[in-house]
Amino acid sequence: MTRQSIVSFFRKYVFNNLSFKLVSLGIAILLWWTVGRDTAIEIPMTVPLEFQHAPANLEINSDYPFQARVTLRGPEHLLQGMNPSTVHAILDLEGAGPGERTFDLTARQVQVPRNVKVVQIVPAQFHVSFDRSASRRVPLQPRVIGTLLSGYGISAVSIDPPMVTVVGPEKRVNAIGSAMTDPVDATGLVGRATFTTHAYVHDPLVRVQTATPIQVAVTTEKTSGKQGQP
């Protein structure tokens, strides 16, 4: 290779747009330095379980919190301030039937952002009880609270609808005798008033289904000179 060809090579491939090449090299060095000094850290995070492919005719009959404590490892700039909503711990319920079953929760079932690794899951197993889904109509009991005016007492309480449908695991639904309304405050009521309220049952795995608002009508009448109580 002649001296002239060497000079031509450097002019064409080395010195051409030299300023841009130097800037690019500087940026590359800066990025390398930034990533290289971003040390790996570990943080614990509590996340709720997400269920996939749950059979339509089954209800979960276990009332403990379905959540896992996940320890994550990754670059500090990714983990610091990470939102738990970016981590998804998933249990696949496909094929489950009535009764009890144990599910493993492994790192493969925990979805995390790129460059983040799952190093520990506690608990690593979940023992879940299933029951057939059931519904039943039960009476609805009104709950009236408050202090009436002196000499007044409650003469009548009516509720519409008088019954509601409860839904949940079959054994728990069959154990429900009635549902109850949220308290309606009749303090100072003279005559008749109608209150709109909601219904509930004490079992957290049984829910109340109502198609229309619940109306509780309370009527008071003058009875004596004593202060009344609902």
Structure description:
With 230 residues, the chain is of the alpha+beta class. It folds into two domains: 40-123, RNA Polymerase Alpha Subunit, Chain A, domain 2 (Beta Complex); 133-227, Beta Complex (RNA Polymerase Alpha Subunit, Chain A, domain 2). 18% of the residues lie in helices and 48% in strands. It contains four helices and 17 strands. The strands form four sheets. Strands 2, 5, 8, 11, 12, 15 and 16 form a seven-stranded mixed sheet that branches. It is elongated and about 120 Å long. The model has no long low-confidence stretch (mean pLDDT 86).
Enumerate the spans where pLDDT stays under 50 for 5 or more consecutive residues.
none
Number of strand elements: 17
CATH-defined architecture of the largest domain: Beta Complex
Radius of gyration based on Cα positions: 33 Å
What's the level 1 CATH class of the largest domain? Answer: Mainly Beta
Find the CATH topology of the largest domain: RNA Polymerase Alpha Subunit, Chain A, domain 2
Q: Which descriptor suits the 3D outline? A: elongated
Going by CATH, the homologous superfamily of the largest domain would be YbbR-like domain
The computed structural class is alpha+beta
Main beta sheet: 7 strands, mixed
Order of helices and strands: HHEEEHEEEEEEEEHEEEEEE
DSSP summary: helix tally: 4
**Considering DSSP H and I runs of 4 or more, what fraction of the residues is helical?**
10-25%
Beta-strand content bin: over 45%
Provide the residue-averaged pLDDT.
Answer: 86
Oligomer: single chain
End-to-end CA span: 109 Å
Total count of domains = 2
